[in-house]
Amino acid sequence: MGTRTSEVKVAGKVGNSVELMKASLGVLKLDKELLVFPVMSGIACVLVLASFVAPLALTGGWQVFEQGGAGYVGMTVMFLFYVVQYTVIFFFNSALVGAALIRLDGGDPTVSDGLAIASKRMGSILGYAVISATVGMILRMISERGGIFAKIAAGLAGMAWTLATYLAVPVLVTKDVGPIDAVKESAAIFKRTWGEQVVGNFGLSWAMFFAFLGWTGVSVALVWASSMIGTAALVPAVLASVSGYVILGLVGSALNGIYTAALYRYAMTGDTGYFDAQILGNAFRPK
Q1: Mean pLDDT value of segment 178-190
Q2: Which of 42, 112, 275, 278 has its CA 20 to 30 A from that of 222?
Q3: Residue 107's closest CA among 116, 115, 99?
Q4: Rounded (5°) CA angle 168-172-178
């Protein structure tokens, strides 16, 4: 009986995941320009990483980091990297969510609309990045310097932070509030809509997991078949495989932004838009 119940739950999750992906893809098809935001975010993140790594590599400072001798200087550099990287990510996420909300409200957004929305909230986005970087650094230090129980505690705290801030970006996009108030509002909306004690039922994550898993199978078969032919066929096969992962990553980021916007809109207005009410209502389920 227990096995049968588990099978039903898994089947339900898969079914919800498929429907959720279909609804998100439906919005993305209407506004394919939403893919531009993950592309710009990815390029900007690579540039930020290079701007931090290149000076260390050129000056030999990288060896100091590898040997753990950077001390407070190393922690400061790491913190600054987190802040800049988070700022970039949150900025383009805000642009994506802002544009998605325009579509869900019946409008026809452009890339410029999304960037304009994010630009107006730049101060709050930077503040939110500083808060997130601080939390990330603290949890990392607890995990690295403590024992097994510290790692578990850091993991649980990280999960709680993720849930509490899940709707922080939509709050920043739609309300003229500071980063602390955005975190508080996100946690309050989450608690009011999905309850105090929840476990994430991230349907979209399940859908993307199966998409990546399926592409991995295709890639392995493609590379193996190409290797039988020769190097001339292997190189294009590898490039096609890598390109597939990049495309899936970009699409997944866009779908996640659309989904977050839909969840926030549902929590605030009860309007489901292109989504099924039951799927949004069960986005997070009671323990």
Answers
A1: 91
A2: 42
A3: 99
A4: 100
pLDDT mean across residues, the chain: 81
* Overall pTM surpassing 0.85 (yes/no): no
Task: Write the pLDDT tens digit of every residue in 82-94.
Answer: 999 999 999 999 9
Name the phi and psi angles at 274, rounded to 5: -85, 0
Instruction: Please list, residue by residue across 36-72, b when 16 or more beta carbons sit within 10 angstroms of its beta carbon and e when fewer do.
Output: bbbebbbebeeebeeeeeeebeeeebeeeeeeeebee
Amino acid at site 210:
F
**Signed CA dihedral, 272, 28, 21, 258: sign only:** negative
At residue 198, the 3 state secondary structure works out as strand
Give the domain ranges of the chain.
2-286
Location of structure tokens 């009986």: 1
CB 108 within 8 A of CB 102: yes
- Residues 162/176, Cβ–Cβ less than 8 Å: no
Decide if 133 contacts 86 (C-beta within 8 A). yes
